[in-house]
Amino acid sequence: MRLTRLPxxxxxxxxxxxxxxxxxxxxxxxxxxxxxxxxxVAAKLDSLTAQAxxxxxxxxxxxxxxxxPGPRMDNDSAREVLRRLSSLYVPAQSRAIxxxxxxxxxADSDLIAGQVETTLLPPPGEAPSxxxxxxxxxxxxxxxxxxxxxxxxxxxxxxxxxxxDEVALAxxxxxxxxxxxRAADGSRVVSVTLPIQLIQAVVGTVTxxxxxxxxxxxxxxxxxxxxxxxxxxxxxxGTVLLTVSIARPLSRLAHAARQVRLAGGARxxxxxxGRTIDEIGALSTAFIQMTNALYDRLDAIESxxxxxxxxxxxxxxSIRSAAEILPxxxxxxxxxxxxxxxxxxxxxLDRLITDISNASRLDAELAREDLxxxxxxxxxxxxxxxYRPDPDADEPGAEVVLESAGGPLxxxxxxxxLSRVFINLVDNARTFSPEGARVRVTARRAGGAHGRLxxxxxxxxxxxxxxxxxSIFERFYTKRPDGTAFGAHSGLGLAIARQIxxxxxxxxxxxxxxxxxxxxxxxxxxxx
Length: 528
Fold this sequence. Notes:
The protein is of the alpha+beta class. The chain has helices spanning 11-63, 75-89, 109-113, 140-149, 153-159, 163-173, 213-262, 279-325, 332-368, 376-385, 415-432, 493-503; strands spanning 64-65, 72-73, 94-100, 104-108, 177-182, 188-198, 201-210, 372-375, 399-404, 410-413, 438-446, 452-458, 507-512, 518-525. It has twelve helices and 14 strands.
C-alpha cells in the first residue's frame, strides 16, 4: 500500500514556544528586579560612604591629635561632633556609630537622639510567636532566592558578617568596608565603615548604617508580581489552547475508534483533522489510512471467502451428483466413469484447498521472514535447471531457456515466495506451449547500477486475449483455451504472484508477443 506523505510536525514548536515564553517573561522579571536591586544597593552604598566621609573628616579635623607617643582620638570631642552632625547627616532609619581602638563603641546616633525601640510582649503565660509576615511581603522568600542567583560569592559572604566583624576588619586593614549585612532579626542592613586615620594610624572608625533597604526591595517585589502574573496568564492561556488543540481532537479520535470497534465491520468515517499542519493532523491522517486499510482488508476477506465458497462448491456439487448416480449405474463402464469423475474432482478440490491455504498464509509469511540479498540470476538458473529435458519422458514438454545480460542482478526480498512466482510463470508458459517449443526466460538490469531488475517469461502458445490481460490476475480466473484439461488449475497462481511481487515493491504485467505467444514481465527494485 502506498502511504501518503505526512505534513511536517509543528505542534511541538507550539508547546515549546508557550513554555519558553513564560520562562522568558519570568527571566526578564528576575533579571530586572536583580539589576534594580544591584543599582539600588550601589547607590545606597555611595550615599552612605559620602555621609560617613563627612563625619570622618570633621572628626579628623577636630578630635584627632598627633602628639606623643602617637596619634589619638579624643573620645569626648568625637562624641560631641557626632551629636551635632546627627541631626544634619543621619536621617530616620539610618544610624552612625563611632568606635575607638579595642574596638569599643564610644558613640551611637540612636542613643544620642534618645530613640526608643518598642517590642510588644505576648500575654502572660504564652510563648512568644514568630512575627507574622505582611500580606504584601509574601514574595520575600522568592525574591530572596532570585537575588541570590546573581550575587557574587563575596556578596553572599558579607551577609554573614556582624558589625563587630566589619569594624575589626577596618581597624586591621585600614580600608573602608562596604556591603549588605544581615541583622539579628533577619533584615538587611546597608553598612559602610570608614577608618578615621591620621597619616597611616587608625585611631577610630565611623560606621554608617541604613535600615530601609527591605522596604525599598518590597516595592520591587510588587514589580516582580506583575511578571509572575503575566507568566501565569501565558501558561494558563497556553494550557487552554493546547487543551483545545490536543485534548479535544484526541477525544474525537478516541470516540471514532470506539465507534469502529462497535460497528461490527460497518464503515465509520474518521474525523478529518488534517487541515492543520501539526502532529494531530498527522495522527488523524494515519488513523484514516489505517482504518481504510482495515476496511479494505475486511472487504478483501469477505470477497475471498465468497470466492472460496463458490469455487469449492463446484467440485463438491460434481462429486455429490456422481455419488448419487453411482448406485444406479447401468454397467461397469458407467460406474468406472463416475468413479473417475469423483477422483478428478477430489484432486481438483485438494489442489484448490492447497492453493487457498497458501494464499491465506502469504501475508503472514512475508511479514514474518526477514529480507535477504538475492542473486536473481542464480535463482532463475536454479529454476531453469528443474526443467532440463528428460529423453526418457513420454512428453518432455517445452524447453526452458535462460538468457541473462550478465553482471550482478541482486535485490532484497524473500527467496521462497519469489521462487514460487517464477516457477508458476514457467509452468503456465510450458502448459500453453506446443511440444518442442521453447520457453524463454530473460533477466536484465534497467536504469543504471541501482535501477530496476526486469525478468520476462515468453512462450510460444496461443497468447492471451486482449480483454483478459488484466483479469487473469484475479483470483480463481480459470478461463483457458479449448483443449486444456478442465479443473487442472485453481486460478490462484497469478493472483498470488502479483501479491508477492507487489509486496516486494515491484510490478507484474501480461502481454503478447508479435510472433505469437504470451509474455509476462516482472519489474523489481535492485538492491542499493
